[in-house]
Amino acid sequence: MTHEGGCACGEVRYRLEQAPFAVHCCHCRSCQRExxxxxxxxxxxxxxxxxxxxxxxxxxxxxxxxxxxxSVFRCPSCRVAMWSHYGGMGDKAGFxxxxxxxxxxxxxxxxxxxxxxxxxWVVLSGDVPAFEVYYSQKQYDxxxxxxxxxxxxxxxxx
Length: 158
Hints:
Blueprint: E1 3-6, E2 13-16, E3 22-26, H1 29-35, E4 40-46, E5 50-54, E6 58-62, E7 70-74, E8 81-86, E9 93-97, E10 111-113, H2 140-144, H3 146-156
């Protein structure tokens, strides 16, 4: 399963060579600030499975909630953020902004994280697991299935 996406102006285009192993809907204050919205919706996958097919994204170093920082890949012209590498997994994992996919409907969230700081007017249905902060590695198999969880563990060095 592949997906393509890109920035708002079309200068940078990318393709996901494999389906994500997880999709996070993050409600932390950093994601709210960075997106100018109530949350960020990110597809997690191995960075080697993100192929730039047009243009050259610019790597911008920014702070993150964890204090480890993140590298955000943006279009140099329209400045849209398309994916990040976070401190915990570094350059091994890409966190792709679902809204930059051509078909964002194809990647609904597997779970909600950092709900302790979600906007009070965001109502979660209960159909998708939600965590006040983050989930435990012991929950990977239940949350993502054995195959996707194995990909996640490999990137985390577990």
